[in-house]
Amino acid sequence: MSTLSKPKHIGRNISRIRELRDMKQEALAQAMGTNQQAISVLENSETIDDAKLEEVAKALGVTAEGIKNFSEEAVLNIISSHDDSTLNSTINIQPTFNPLDKVVELYEEKEKLYERLIQAEKDKVEYLEKIVKGK
After folding, report:
1. 33, 79: one domain
2. Signal peptide: which range, if any (predicted)?
3. Scanning 64, 86, 124, 128, which has its CA 20 to 30 A from the CA of 79?
4. In this prediction, what percent of the chain has a pLDDT beyond 70?
């Protein structure tokens, strides 16, 4: 008895990878310089030529081999193998500065620029008055 396995559906793999990357067909189409209908046809294709697969892989930010060998089970295993503390520590971002200090700093910088602008205008008026008096 033959144990031939069903070949992987490359278009379906492309679709799942695109979805996992939170990308719409329109965004992938734009990245590839084509339209949404072409992406739909591509995702419904069981096989894709290597040149087109390389182009899709580049637009998705993966390798062609990654698309060919994509397995949802592997993705789920990777996600479930991380405990919650690992996921939380990668997402938790602590700024190294106080945002209010930055606001105050920007306000003070704006005031200094405004004062320089006023001084430049005063200098210009003074210069023009000298020219007018000189005539």
Report:
1. yes
2. none
3. 64
4. 79
